[in-house]
C-alpha cells in the first residue's frame, strides 16, 4: 500500500464520520425541541433541630469517638 492510497482511505473515512456526525447532530437537535421544559426544582425546607436534639447528637458522637479512641489505645 502506498502512502497516497492510505491518505485517500483516511480522507474517505473522515468524510464518512463527518457525515454521520452531522446526521446525529441534526437528529439530536430535533429531539430536544420536542421535549417538555424541565420543572423548576422544589425548594427543600430546612430541617431545624432543637438545641436539646443537637446536644443529644453531639453527646452521642463524643461517646462514639471516646469508644473508638479507647479501643485504639488498647490495641497499641
Question: Would you mind describing this structure in some detail?
Answer:
The chain is an all-alpha fold. It has two helices and no strands. It has one domain. The mean pLDDT is 88. The longest helix has 32 residues, at 3-34. The protein is elongated.
Topology:
Elements: H1 3-34, H2 51-75
Strand proportion: under 5%
Number of H- or I-type helical stretches: 2
- How does the overall form come out from the CA principal axes? elongated
Q: Oligomeric status of the shown chains?
A: single chain
- Through-space gap between termini: 71 Å
| Poorly predicted spans | none
Question: How much helix, percentage-wise, in residues?
Answer: over 70%
Mean pLDDT: 88
The SSE order reads HH
- What structural category characterises the helix and strand content? mainly alpha
Radius of gyration: 32 Å
How many separate domains? 1
Largest sheet: none
Number of strands: 0
Short structural summary:
The chain has helices at residues 3-34, 51-75.
Quick tags:
single chain; 76 residues; mainly alpha; 0% strand
Amino acid at each position: 500500500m502506498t502512502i497516497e492510497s492510505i491518505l485517500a482511505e483516511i480522507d474517505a473515512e473522515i468524510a464518512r464520520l463527518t457525515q454521520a456526525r452531522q446526521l446525529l447532530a441534526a437528529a439530536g437537535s430535533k429531539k430536544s425541541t420536542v421535549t417538555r421544559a424541565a420543572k423548576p426544582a422544589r425548594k427543600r425546607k430546612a430541617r431545624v433541630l432543637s438545641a436539646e436534639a443537637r446536644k443529644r447528637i453531639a453527646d452521642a458522637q463524643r461517646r462514639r469517638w471516646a469508644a473508638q479512641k479507647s479501643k485504639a489505645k488498647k490495641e497499641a
